[in-house]
Specification:
Helices cover about 80% and strands about 0% of the residues. By secondary structure, the chain is mainly α. The chain has one domain. α4 packs antiparallel against α5. The two termini are about 25 Å apart.
Length: about 110
């Protein structure tokens, strides 16, 4: 899918491995969540997006959507993907009251920002 080149940047490869790990963990969290939990998570994330738009202007939504469909990825894009997955994991853990997962994901999210 992304960055299958034999001479890929090791930093990028580490970031992609991190992304895959967090993505898998998020999928597990989603599976354990109810529809109501996911709806509340979406509402909180939408509020965060609205807050960012108010502060920083229009967000490049089409660019981000294209990023998810891209065949190649650079370090900046990989960091954004990791951040997005972690952001959802933090909010979902908060909504579901999973304090241990919340603290772990919040800590991971703080490390990348």
């Amino acid at each position: 899918m992304w960055c299958n080149a034999p001479y890929a940047d090791p930093t990028l490869m580490n970031t992609l491995a991190e992304f895959k790990d967090y993505y898998k963990r998020l999928d597990e969290m989603i599976t354990k969540s109810t529809k109501a939990d996911l709806a509340e998570c979406a509402r909180l994330l939408a509020l965060n997006v609205a807050d960012s738009k108010a502060k920083y202007g229009e967000l490049p939504l089409e660019e981000h959507q294209a990023m998810l469909e891209a065949n190649d990825i650079d370090e900046e894009m990989a960091q954004l993907l990791v951040g997005g997955v972690l952001e959802m994991a933090v909010v979902l853990a908060l909504v579901t009251g999973r304090s241990e997962e919340y603290e772990e994901m919040k800590g991971a999210n703080a490390r990348i920002h």
